[in-house]
Specification:
By secondary structure, the protein is an alpha/beta fold. The chain has 7 helices and 7 strands; from the N terminus they run H-H-E-H-E-H-E-E-H-E-H-H-E-E. The chain is globular, with a radius of gyration of 17 Å. This is Methyltransferase.
Amino acid sequence: MQALSSVERGYDLLAPKFDHTPFRTSESIVGATANALAGLGPFDRGLDVCCGTGAGMRVLSSLCQGRITGVDFSAGMLAQARSAYPDARWVRADARALPFTEDADLAVSFGAFGHFLPAERPALFEGIYRALRPGGLFTFAIAAPPPLTSVWHWATLGFDVVMRVRNAVWRPPFVMYYHTSPVPALCDELTAVGFTATTVDLTDLGRYRDGSPRYRLILARKPPTDPL
């Protein structure tokens, strides 16, 4: 039922059991992100974009001294997140039209970018840029492309093919792709909206046999004074 629904309706259906599925961001990724950010603060307010059931709140609650906020467009996912973090602020909104202006010092996102087509990401990044205070940081972990000889490469490629066929023959579409968010393109898009984008290897999460990292952390910093 989830696979044949829209993204929003699908996650409403999945929400009660989402944390027990492999789709939830693993604690190892959340922990590695928190460790990598520990020396980049201090941060006051935090924002988890496409928060789902609240995986990113572990990062924000450990690093932010002020209010932390989660935003998602699935009411079901927000209900699960609210029960886990009752003291946080929760906002239901489309991430492509975020209702915040200079509201956070640190913004994070986990496991969401496969749900946005490349043409939709500029609006997403512009909204996050607007939501950050001058000097604020937006960061997210992203899996590095596995080697062509990796089973994971072919498994994710096959998944993308199946989803494209599904979306070609069934409405509403369910957007979820693994191979539409290459790191160079993401950095270029972040730079285009005003961020200074860099990457660091999340070595806590291991490397492939060729020595390349399994995950990278993208760090997008808003200038201390907005040139606009």
